[in-house]
What we know:
- By secondary structure, the chain is mainly alpha-helical.
- It has helices spanning 10-24, 35-74, 79-93, 96-109, 114-127, 129-135, 143-156, 160-186, 193-200, 205-219, 222-234, 240-253, 255-262, 267-287, 291-298, 305-324, 328-338, 364-386, 409-434, 441-476, 484-510, 513-543, 552-586.
- The chain folds into 2 domains: 14-338, no CATH class; 358-586, Phosphate transport system protein phou homolog 2, domain 2 (Methane Monooxygenase Hydroxylase, Chain G, domain 1), CATH 1.20.58.220.
- The protein is 75% helix and 0% strand.
- Helix 7 packs antiparallel against helix 8 (160-186).
Amino acid sequence: MNLFRNKISYQKIALLFFLATSSLFAGNSDNTISFFLLFTGLFGGMGMFLYGMEMMSDGMKVTAGNSMRTILEKLTSNKYLAVLVGAFVTMVIQSSSATTVMLVSFVNSGLLAFSQALGVILGSNIGSTVTAQIVAFKVTDYALLLIALGSIMSLFSKKETIKNLGLVVLGFGLLFYGMKVMSDTMKPLRSDPAFNSILTSFENPFLGILAGAIFTALVQSSSATTGIVITLASGGSITLEAGIPLIFGANIGTCITALLAGLNASRDAKRVAVAHVTFNVIGVLLFCFWIPTFADIISQTSQNIPRQIANAHTIFNIIASVVFIPFTGFIAKTIIHYFPDKEVDRNIEKPAVLHLDDSLVSQPEAAINNAQAEIKGVVGLTERVVGTLVRPFIKGQELIDIENTDQDLMSGMNQRIEKISFLNQKISEYLITASKSDLSSNQSKELFTLVSIVNYLSSMNDLIKVRFVSLVSKKEGINEDFSDTDQQEAIDYHKRLIKQVNRLDKFFIKFDKEKMEKIIIKGKENTDFEKKYKLDRIERMKTSSEADIKSSEINQLHSQLMDMLKQVNIFINLIASSLIELESEQE
């Protein structure tokens, strides 16, 4: 598992070095403080703290990420419920950034409206405060026990779930032990006037907010900033009045991650990032002018300063979310006004890849959502292709005609077939790249299923490409039409196929398992009908007079057309069976 993922970056190392070397000058002139021990204590303690938090978050995401993705997909229709879901998901996976990444992919794929995503963003701010509440508990004495337990679970267990939980426990242990090391290292500095002067200066709201924002932007984790502030408070080095501006600044600094991710990302990613910044900056502005009063209120919640700071963090985010919830619709409209959709037409000469965001391919949950959304687009094109299959062979307007009447039939058909081939190739490449990331067993199965579905869609597309062109060419060389009965059989079976592809398309909107079960049932009915057509045809030929019997060429063409439709039905059934199997395994 890649636990670093650019988080333990040169920025963090530079910051740690800056903090450590800055603290050296807080020592007394008589050299009573060991500069070397101070440096190694701060640097090593903070490194363990950040690494432990990263390990804990990654373990949570691998263990519960896929389930959290399902919850986000299905429980965000109401904006109030969306806030609760966002808080719960972030609390479980211990990463508001991961929640934001999933949100971007959901909005981008059409699974979630942008206005619904705003509620989840507010909830993620609340969920991120759980880490501070945990850190505020005095459990540093048990840190080594947690490290030992987590190491045993992750190294010696054969079950993937236990291994991942072991990483979570190990991360907690490293986090708390890093806190202990930093707290012990800073004890000699409590009596140092220069050091105390620096910390006291953070009681100035704007200076504290600025320092918290810069620190969080560098370490890219508001939870890390809050945890370090609580560590300082537990050692008696910082007051509540100084801690509150720092955690307010952390709420602003954490937006940097989303802003950086949105620079070269999709329009939806930019909107989510802008919404995150809007909520957090305005929230801090609402509170920053009455911090002393807020501190007085918070001081009544506990006698313990670290707990007070954790409570301030939680209460601030809850109040800010409650204030913003009624205005999410207005804020969404405002952001969309300044960041409008770019119209992308799938019917242009070069096929448009709408959802495969390369910047999210290393995030399994987001990559899976992106691939599903692109597959839905392919299914939509396939529905139009299938809707055209019997048109050249039918006289009159009895069939469902979804083809543009002003567009040449074969030209439009070939264009869509080529687009489907192009998109299927891009989706397959995207899924192969995503499979190289660290995946849970469920994510691996889901990726494998999506690859199988793309292969089935490609095979169906190739079948139509070869058979349809051949049949149309053959029809042009025959001067006869199907009999009325044969024509009606083709029309009826064709209508059934269109409904099947439509059910498949609807599945990728709401991931409704019942749609797939209905495809299987109707697919079997279609097979039975096709057999019945053959038997009825044989009986008709036995009883028909010689004058009524069509030539062998038109009869053979009808049989080949029905066979092609039957093969399409089989591919749709295979796709449905794969999706049902996957959904059943994940329940």
